[in-house]
Amino acid sequence: MARSKNHRKYSSGFNASARQAAQMLLLKPTMWRLLKVHVHGQSNLDDLQGACVVFANHSSHLDTPLIYGALPRRISKFLAAGAAQDYFYDKWWKSGPMTLFFNGYPIDRGKDDGPGKRNVRGLSGALLDEGVPLLIFPEGSRSRTGAMGPFKHGVASLCISRKVPAVPIALIGAHDAWPSSQKGLPKGRPSVHVIIGHPMTPYPGEIAHEFSERMRRRVLELHDGTARAYGARTLEEYARSAALEAANRTELPEDPQPEEK
Question: How many CB atoms lie within 10 A of CB 168?
Answer without folding.
Answer: 27
